[in-house]
Known about the structure:
By secondary structure, this protein is of the alpha+beta class.
Amino acid sequence: MLTHQVYFWLKEPDSIQAQEQLKQGLQRLLTIETIGSGHIGIPAATPGRDVVDHSYSFAYYTTFESLQDHEVYQTHPTHLEFVENCQHLWERVQVYDYSMVD
């Protein structure tokens, strides 16, 4: 299994319109058939600590059964459309992909 985590920092983090547009784009991504599971989140209201980063605007989490499913996702028209339509909203994106260990 492969996990794909993406963190987005909006150019205008206080803009309700930008937040809604990114959220809708991310929700559409979750319809891609090779995704095993997924969800969208915002920073939790946990206490600040040196090791906790609350600076991002949105988090996006998906799982894939295989690397091949992930590759289909990366080149899927819905994913390409998302990047084209939403990339103007963010100033930074950070991706963490990892494989599960036993």
